[in-house]
Every structure is written in C-alpha cells, then in structure tokens.
Amino acid sequence: MALLKEFCAENMTLVPAAIKAGACRIELCDNLAVGGTTPSRGVIRAAVQYARPRGVAVMTMIRPRGGDFAYTAEELDIMRDDIDCACELDTTGVVFGCARDGRLDVDATEVLVAAARKAGERRGEHVSITFHMAFDAIEPEEQPAVIRQLADWGVDRILTHGGVAGTAIGDNLPRLRELVEIADGRITILPGAGITWENADHVAGSIGVFEAHGTKIVRL
To answer: What confidence tens digit (pLDDT) does each residue in 119-172 have?
Structure first.
C-alpha cells in the first residue's frame, strides 16, 4: 500500500505545489510558529475548492490560540463555531485536541467530537476527526487509555510525535510502535514532526502505518 502523505499547510500558498508533488491530504492551519491555529474562512474555502475536486482531503485545524490545550468554556464555544464554519465550507474533517494537567480533557473533547458529528449529520457526510499533538502533552502512562477512549468515540486518527517536542523522530520509533500496537487498528496513529520526504517511508515502515504528516512530507 502506498504511503498517504499529509502535508501541513500554513495557508493556501503551497497547497497546489504540494498536491502536484504527491500530497494526498492537506492539514490546513495558520500560525505554525505556535503549532497551528484555525485558518480564516477565506483560506478554508480556497483550499477546499482547489483540493477536493482533485481527490485530496482537507483537514482543518480547530485551535483558537497557541499555548496549552486547556480551553475555557468561551474558547470551546469559539471552537464549536469554527467546526460549523469549516464543515459548511466542505472541509473533509477537523483537527483538535484537549488536554489538561497531563490528562485528556474528557468533557471538552466530548463537546468537540459531538459538534463534528452534528455537522456531519447536517450535511449528510462523515466529518473526519484527528486528535492532534495535544496527545503528546498527555502523560505516557495515560496514553493507552486515551487511545482506547478516542477510538470508542469514533475519532479517526491521532497525530503524535511519539515523544516530547524537539526529540528526534528516529529516537521515538519504539514508542510509536507501542502506540500502533495499542491502537490495534481501531484508530490510526499518524506520525508527525521531523518527518520529511526523505525519511517518511522509513518511519512509516518501521512502525507499521500507512500515513505520515509533515510540512516537508513532499519534495517541493
């Protein structure tokens, strides 16, 4: 099976070139300097209108700010509105993550999963969900239970570096393999951060997955 390469795009600028270079899915976000935030309505519309007719999925980041992943009630309202907006613009799916004090923020995650499911019901099409690298802010001993919980909720994939930010992806391969085994095919483990067009096949093959994520996942 060919490796599905998800290109992380900060705006619309590189989307056409990334698709031409082999990206099969776009994670669309803004402000990568803080790890990505929600892109504008105009950027979502342009990316979807370009990518989806070419058979390329668009996953829209839902994150109101940089910093931690513990959101207030007011921020959750913003995120629900942004999910509705992105889905009205025909995004394939949404990307979010909620963690507090080293644990999954269960209540906040349930709110956002429900919002995505309701958006899908309104438009009559499944809205894919990625739980992003907030997963890496969760204590390692908590992660197995989180994987099972997200799978139970029907979340499609977890984006993870397999370790804390700044560590080499090669050093995290054993942990990523463990996470894939825990997932047991119920939810996709999507490796990211430090993955490039040069090492993507090696990383994916080493941990037994068929998807990989990065800003340099294709050669531009």
So the answer is: 999 999 999 999 999 999 999 999 999 999 999 999 999 999 999 888 999 999
What count of other Cβ atoms lies within 10 Å of the Cβ of residue 16?
A: 13
With a CB cutoff of 8 Å and minimum separation 6, the contacts of 79 are: 38, 62, 63, 64, 71, 96, 112, 115
The CA distance from 56 to 79, in Å, is 24
**What is the rounded distance in angstroms from the CA atom of residue 31 to the CA atom of residue 102?**
24
The torsion angle over the Cα atoms of residues 183, 172, 193 and 216, rounded to 10 degrees, is -100
Tokens representing residue 213 in the block: 């994520």
The answer to whether the CB of 194 falls within 8 A of the CB of 164 is no
Give the containing element (helix H, strand E) for 131.
Answer: strand 128-131
- Asked if 146 and 98 count as a contact pair (C-beta separation under 8 A), the reply is no
Neighbouring C-alpha atoms within 13 Å toward the C-beta of 194 = 18
